[in-house]
Design goal:
Shape: elongated
Strand content: under 5%
Helix content: 40-55%
Largest sheet: none
Mean pLDDT: 66
Number of strands: 0
Order of helices and strands: H
Structural class: mainly alpha
Length: 39
């Protein structure tokens, strides 16, 4: 996954990268803010 390109934030690729980043953030952190243990 590439870095988020703010210049293309309005394009479909920018939206896809942004949604991927949000999904990864929600997956990597529990509601308590602690990272999930690596299993």
């Amino acid at each position: 996954m590439g870095l988020f390109d703010y210049k293309n934030a309005g394009s479909e690729a920018g939206k896809a990268l942004y949604s991927d980043a949000i999904a990864l953030t929600l997956y990597a952190y529990t509601p308590t803010g602690q990272p999930l243990p690596a299993t």
